[in-house]
Amino acid sequence: MTTPKRVEIGWPALGIAVTAELDDRNAALAQSLWDAMPYRSLQGHALVAGHHLYHVAPVHSLLYQTPTYKVEDRRYEPDGTIFASRLQHLGIKYGELTEPMPAIPIGRVVPDDVDSLAEAGRAVWEAVYTTKKPVIAEVRRAGENNGHSLPRLTVTDPEADALIGDLHAETERIWLEAPQELVDLHEGRIPSCAGSYETVLTTLLFVNGETRPLGYAAYGGLVRAAYEDVPLESLRQMARILTSTPAEFLAYCGLEKVWYFTRRTLDCIDRIDNRDDFAALMAHMTLYLNCLGGWNLHLFPWQLGDHLRRVSAPA
């Protein structure tokens, strides 16, 4: 067994930091995360699964790397367990989980810091559910300085490479600051007047329902398909089928840049003549969409449903 890699995860706005150790259960995934440090990211909280923190990690390889070890049900893992996800998330269990699903563990918060982790979890939930004050996570190698950068991939085709450069710049711009398009949407400024009878919540609901799968499933799925030897022409066809309609709908709802970047992507995929370059472009679209989706989940007015509480099922 190799020496664990010690990591510090801090939330300066909360005055809380914890130490964790990455282990060798999924050594390649842990190494990818280690190589990406230091970085910062908007801290999110599970909205359905229970006491679980997650944030988008700026690591393209999380989308396609094959794990060597999985647990069948993350509910039974110890509090403090750190998971990597093909949704490009770094997740941390800090209490009860209700969602029975396989997961990919890569490390664990040290036992002495589990109580601090739970304190951070409760504070992040309050931020996501009620206050809407962003909480930024700082992830670094233990003993090293904080910092931040997003990876920028390159491809051989000049037009595709220029598009990746623009996507990288836009993702950097919104990584730690809420995109103005989303802020306007959540405050009811919708140029198209989307929302029947002047409603806003209905539009927000549909935007959330399209943004997350566009990043998680469509673009993220295209990256995985590219690494699973799907023929390039089939990848092009899948890209056109999976991305165009939801991106155009999101533009109508106010997220015009999603459609702008999707149009540019679809316009240049015929120029791309190898699978690696295709995967690189799709990876940048995925990171952009996942960042946008994270901000949308943070801004969404979940507290409007506070009167709706789970009740016990009838016997």
Order of helices and strands: EEHEEEEEHEHHHHHH
Estimated helix fraction: 40-55%
What general form does the structure show? globular
**Largest beta-sheet characterization:** 8 strands, antiparallel, barrel
Distance between the termini: 49 Å
Radius of gyration: 20 Å
In total, the number of strands is 8
Write down the oligomeric state.
single chain
On the 0 to 100 scale, the average pLDDT is: 96
Unreliable sequence segments: none
Helix/sheet category: alpha+beta
Give the amount of beta strand, in percent: 15-25%
What is the helix tally? Answer: 8
Arrangement of strands in the largest sheet = 1-2-7-5-6-4-3-8
Structure characterization notes:
The structure is a single chain. The chain has 315 residues and is an alpha+beta fold. The protein is built from eight helices and eight strands. The chain has helices at residues 27-36, 114-131, 158-175, 180-186, 201-226, 232-253, 256-268, 275-299; strands at 5-11, 16-22, 39-45, 50-56, 81-84, 89-97, 104-109, 136-141. An eight-stranded antiparallel barrel has the order 1-2-7-5-6-4-3-8. α7 (256-268) runs antiparallel to α8. The protein is globular, with a radius of gyration of 20 Å. 40% of the residues are buried.
Key words describing this protein structure:
eight-stranded antiparallel β-barrel, 315 residues, 44% helix, single chain, alpha+beta
